[in-house]
Records
---
Amino acid sequence: MDINKNSEQRGVAVQAQFGDADVQDETVGYTFCDGCNEVPFCGIKFHKKGDVVTRIEPWPEFPASPICSKAYATLQRLYNPNRLKYPMKRTNPKDSTDPCFMRISWDEAYEMIVGHLKRIKEEYSPHAVFFYVGDPKEPRAAVQRLAATYGSVNYGCESSTACRRAAQLAELVTYGFPTMGNLPSPETRSMLIWGTNPAYSGQPFMCHGHLADAKERGVKFIVVDPRKTPTVTTLADIHLQPRPATTAAVAAGMMHVIFKEGLHDKQFCDKWIHGINELKEYVKTFTPEKVEAVTWVPAKKIVDAARLYATHSPGGMMTGAQGTTHDLNATNNHRAILLIPAICGYVDVPGGIVKPTHPLVEMAGPWAEGPPKFCLREKMNGMKEQRLDLKAFPVWAEKMFEVQTNHLVEWIREGRVKALLSWGLNTMIWPQSHEYQEAIGSLEFTMAVDYFYRPQTHHFVDLLLPAAMNYERLAPFAFFGRQIFGRSPVKPLGECKEDWQIALEIGTRLGLSNIFFDGDVERACNDILGMWNLSYDDLRKNIQKGIVLPAEGPELYRKYETGHMRMDGKPGFPTPTGKIEAFSTALERHGYPALPEYREPMQTTNEYPLILISGSRLPHITHSKWREDAPWLLELQREPLLTINPDDAKQRGIEKGDIVVLKTLCGEMRVKAKPTKIVPRGIVAMMHGWAKANVNELIPRKFDPISGFPPYKEVVCAVIKA
Ligand SMILES: Nc1nc2c(c(=O)[nH]1)N[C@H]1C(S)=C(S)[C@@H](COP(=O)(O)OP(=O)(O)OC[C@H]3O[C@@H](n4cnc5c(=O)[nH]c(N)nc54)[C@H](O)[C@@H]3O)O[C@H]1N2
Ligand SMILES: Nc1nc2c(c(=O)[nH]1)N[C@H]1C(S)=C(S)[C@@H](COP(=O)(O)OP(=O)(O)OC[C@H]3O[C@@H](n4cnc5c(=O)[nH]c(N)nc54)[C@H](O)[C@@H]3O)O[C@H]1N2
Ligand code: SF4
Ligand SMILES: [Mo]
């Protein structure tokens, strides 16, 4: 495809939409940004003329208000002439190189879907239909309701495949509650930031701004990241640069020092950590010198970091969704990090890692999960025995309501999955992506709902449905702590429909109109809002400032002492032992190592002397999006780039802009090199999601035995000048 030519055409198209808009006739609307699928979202205030959005700006009253380059580009994406606007059916046989997608009516599309759903239920089982939502978080609640009602327990998403859930699993088996840590509060004196780069990947206001303010106040920062990211350069008092995938050893080293020097919170450890003696014993051998040899982090820095964190009390912590879990020791690596603030007594104290006292319990988590009642989670839990991942990942299946999707290839080959209903599917998410694409191609029926036709994912799908974009949809509403916001959409382009509407209409066509509100999105939202005696109308009336649901009381701390942490009201943490579990009873029960043990990652060799970190976020790209979607952003970076340390580049005769061959045991590809000191010697890094150089084809299909996560940030490689 000639990107330049297309970008010119699209530029004209965008101008045509708002070039003649008379500002005086504009009215205002409000929506949320879905540019990076962060939840909670950032707020967008937009101007429109009729149903044409003319310009956008931050929504000042919205809690996450400054917006980034990707948010501005959502406007160009909205009027991208390549957008899907009608339901499309594949008309050529699957072995044909041209899928020949033809426009059909929604009626025909629904007949197809419902026909296959009914047939598969009769011929095989409802569980043979897999329901999937990719990184877009917004469709999730409606799709889960559809899966549960249809009778399939097999619902999975990108979070349960490659993103947040491995960390969450570690949190649940260790603390008993999910947490990514905390932003620094006025009491916080030190912060441990591990495997995340919020300067690029976080919401501007939510993360990095807060952290920078805390730095001004004198909070000390330890940042653990193999790369010298902007988070490191702007915040770090101490930067630990470990060899990728050696997290558990770095953490064990820090704990070794803290225990040895008696800097831990002895009372808390003795009373509230299950397996504290086993943990002490385990980390005894992780002397700073040994840890240096294993992790490349100088012994002195391990000692300094441990001392700084344990003595600047209370300390907070921030981990990413996935920086520490993209390797074959994912769960235990993340568990090891969690134990550092635990032994310092920083859990649920002011300034430390606090479990919110008054969340919207009815939501039980962010939109990425969906409200359990609306999602019919109880019904799903009742069907657990039919989960596809039950045998391969038993602890996961016990703790996570979403199925671990990495084994989709095997399940399709074994005939256990016959059809796939997907929203925001992207096969490039997976290691050895082509195997997923081929497996999907062999299904009896695949439906995909998306904004664009993306050949690498949609080539084999039978039915491609056009999703309304963020300016064009009502559902879902947003919530921020206890503040709820609605939005005021414009009419969708063409025959696009919002994700929720598609799910609700499929349900209605299955004959379950009462459960699916006759396909009415607002009524579905009202069903959820009713939990707080609200309706969408209330949100509309308070569109700018949202509605605050007052908390029943102040934030409480050390809730493990008072019984406010567990559902049964007893003192303790919400784990089987009532304590933070350094020694995990759940992992032990299923035959896994119960302590957060370190496992050596893949070893470099003469042939593969470098380590590949794939997927480090860039501010102007989200995964597979923002390439052709919005040429404004593509101007910032037209092609995939492999970052390599200048010394490593020089050694190989590589200069800026040279084409190199990136090679792993799985294969090789050509990519442009970008020498930069952001990556240290011995490590190279590149972003995933580029169709023209899909780095996931170089990642093996090996998985962490506990969480099932792939080694995106562990694989050894070679880089050779082409
Ligand atoms: N090597 C490597 N691989 C990785 C990662 C890594 O770090 N390294 N990261 C992993 C992680 S954390 C993630 S989250 C995944 C990325 O997860 P993906 O699911 O790959 O995310 P996207 O590429 O953002 O979106 C997928 C598709 O959804 C469509 N879409 C976007 N919004 C909507 C919507 O609202 N509705 C509908 N119907 N469609 C929509 C987009 O057009 C796109 O085609 O990648 C994972 N893969
Ligand atoms: N602009 C933008 N924003 C995004 C996204 C995007 O694609 N683009 N994606 C969204 C999604 S789905 C997600 S999951 C989040 C991800 O958000 P983050 O988790 O903050 O992801 P990254 O920015 O890649 O930061 C992860 C860091 O981990 C480091 N790392 C790699 N291996 C190791 C290791 O072994 N140990 C340690 N300590 N660090 C390691 C990498 O060098 C990298 O700097 O971002 C979200 N926001
Ligand atoms: S960080 Fe940027 S892309 Fe992500 S939600 Fe906020 S404005 Fe949108
Ligand atoms: Mo993610």
---
Amino acid sequence: MIPALMPTYNRADLAFERGEGAWLWTVDGRRFLDFGSGIATASIGHGHPHLVQAIAEQAAKVMHTSNLYRIPQAERLAARLVETSFADSVFFCNSGAEANEGMIKAVRKYHAENGHPERNVTICFEGAFHGRTLATLAATGNEKYLAGFGPPMPGFRHVPFGNMNAVRDAIDGTTAAILVEPIQGEGGVRPASLDFLRALRAACDEFGILLALDEVQTGMGRSGKLWAHQWAGIEPDVMSSAKGIGGGFPLGAILAKEKVAQYLKPGTHGSTYGGNPLACAAGNAVLDVVLAPGFLGQVDRVARHLWRGLLDLAQRHPAVIEGVQGAGLLLGIRLKPEVNNGEAQNAAVAEGLLTVAAGMNVLRLAPPLIISEAEADEALRLLDRAMLRCTPSHAKDAAK
Ligand SMILES: *Cc1c(COP(=O)(O)O)cnc(C)c1O
């Protein structure tokens, strides 16, 4: 018989009751070091007192009023995001897919309003992940995810990630935008080179098309800067954010330059929940933590510490690990083809460490941004044991 909870996920048989910082406890009392953060979402860890208090206080006052009225918490959060980013204006929604969906609408609207409705194709990349709605599935372009869901939404074209020749070849009179993740998260924690991001910006300027960044996974401090594109010294025209911005409370956002945002007038786009007082109280609390002096510097420091430890881990386990990739606290251990990342994930669980598998046979690490160097060391110790569990027996014999 089908479970009451629809079986859309392959869930591990673990249920958590309580969390504190980077640690989670199951209902049966086991403790895990959480280097997955609920897929890069519990950005400031579990049970962060400031976030808990902000949510509790707002919940007691008023949670939801709808966008029929002004929402001071949303006005404040938007103003702070504008102040700390390239953007002039922000739209709030509830998830990453929804932010991307709105962003795709925004780039099409921009060209339509500028007299070019034929410019409605978004160039996307192989290995991308943009969400599970019909439009974002088409933007994702993964045959496995599209299968069975009818004709993919038109208006998307895919080229190899990192290949500037292919991008320029794909640009024509129908191109509206280039949509790219600064680091492909689900696709295998693959960073775009900073030069590739700069070249995309230049091509967009050259051809009058929009640069749309999907920073759903890479944003809100995950890379060691507030937004990952800041490492490249470029600015997008429009950007999506979600996951980490609510610290675990569902919140998504479209950040846009005025030239794009100006066309999203009343009646063009909307959301019932989007940017409600409770979600924005959570967003403001996360921002308080991430923007506190020294916070991002510490993320960068602990990330570099973890990176060095992972390089060392790779050296100790040449039969298991092919390489290490990623940036900031979004890191991937690329495994040898004979070692399956799902099995490696289970081996880590057996050692008390939570990670997330990603594409390209990568074991993804996305710990809460608040981890200490000691917690990074603890994760490395647990990974060392997990990698030993994954070592093929012939390699174990050779190492003796
Ligand atoms: C997770 C993710 C999404 C989808 O976000 P949802 O909140 O699951 O809809 C989109 N883009 C990227 C880069 C993501 O990592």
